[in-house]
């Protein structure tokens, strides 16, 4: 689905945004029957509450949208999206009361409230359509919403319909929309083209592993996005328990997120050269599965001791990062549902990221606050480098002890980025409980913050 703003119309129902405690002052400027209706319904402007005020003919004449207080609003985001989901079908316009600095985020949230994953069962999102508020870049917001919906659809699709082959088709479909090109290296050709870790992780699955390589743009700074595309992670021979497999269709959330971000970049025509690399595999079990104790040689020649086959994401990303670094892009970013340790550290709602560039970190943090896409900087902590050096090989894919799991995974990946400016996101890609504009299920994280930050970071 592609969320769209409604066309302006005189019949659009006005929405008046009212902060908590401001209802009496606002009502004092209204006719007596409106004041009586507000009092009779006990509307106080509390966050997330709304009141439909009937017109003379009994149909909705206006909506009062509670906007709470500044203190209450910081505990959530997309507050009007929750109200949009509760409104009857129709066209609405924001008439008064919304702070101008909030208009873009609230309008985006309203757009996203229309999302529903209906591939397997008829479902609807909010049917309240919004006229784009004055002063917002409607085309930009619709491009962002479309990219986010792409990410959600890809993550929500189960592995029987979203294997490496289907992820490849999704990349081709996206490329076709924007005149991008896609090349794919699959199966044993991965060995011939020197992608040994991608091949090793994916060779036990029925659907062949592959590296998807999409390019777009002819001029400007070079940006390479690398997304983990593990379409299902059974854990390999270190088989996951059943409960831990329940959400493993989302282990390609990094790939889904970089494709969503790529949609935003291409739809907005950012003046850069974009490359998207996705190692797409399933981590399965068969007679040719890789084993604990194996020592593998990566594309860049580094040897890796396998101490847990369930730490496979960093392996496939290693080959892709090495390939990306070979062209020395101006910036390389990886996104991956990589570690449970990140969830323990920051929970499901924050997207932790790693970078050595303080200016990049500051730009991301500021952008995240501007677009309500929360991120949190984590350290490439140098003293932990020795934790990923097992002695028998250059690197250990799963250091013992369990400490600092997200950090050691990020340090592992950095070894393959060479000297390229590099930022890594360890995302969750899943919303565990419904929230305004974010139903339970797949969700993009970090993409909107990156999109906001990129012009400054790359000098666009």
Give an overview of the whole structure.
- By secondary structure, the chain is of the alpha/beta class.
- The chain has 2 domains: 13-114, Leucine Aminopeptidase, subunit E, domain 1, CATH 3.40.220.10; 143-458, Aminopeptidase.
- 34% of the residues lie in helices and 21% in strands.
- The chain contains 16 helices and 19 strands.
- It has helices at 23-27, 32-41, 70-73, 79-86, 103-112, 138-156, 164-178, 189-192, 196-202, 242-245, 253-268, 313-325, 340-346, 358-371, 405-414, 447-458, and strands at residues 13-18, 50-54, 60-66, 90-96, 128-130, 181-186, 210-216, 222-227, 229-233, 273-283, 295-297, 303-305, 331-336, 351-355, 375-378, 395-396, 422-426, 430-431, 441-442.
- Strands 6, 7, 8, 9, 10, 13, 14, 15 and 17 form a 9-stranded mixed beta sheet that branches. Strands 2-3-1-4-5 form a 5-stranded mixed beta sheet, sandwiched between helices.
- Strand 11 (295-297) and strand 12 (303-305) form a beta hairpin.
- Helix 4 runs parallel beside helix 5 (103-112), helix 7 (164-178) runs parallel beside helix 11 (253-268) and helix 14 (358-371) crosses helix 16 (447-458).
- This is Leucyl aminopeptidase.
- Belongs to the peptidase M17 family.
- Keywords: Aminopeptidase, Hydrolase, Manganese, Protease.
- One of its GO terms (biological process) is proteolysis.
- Residues 308-315 form the Cytosol aminopeptidase domain.
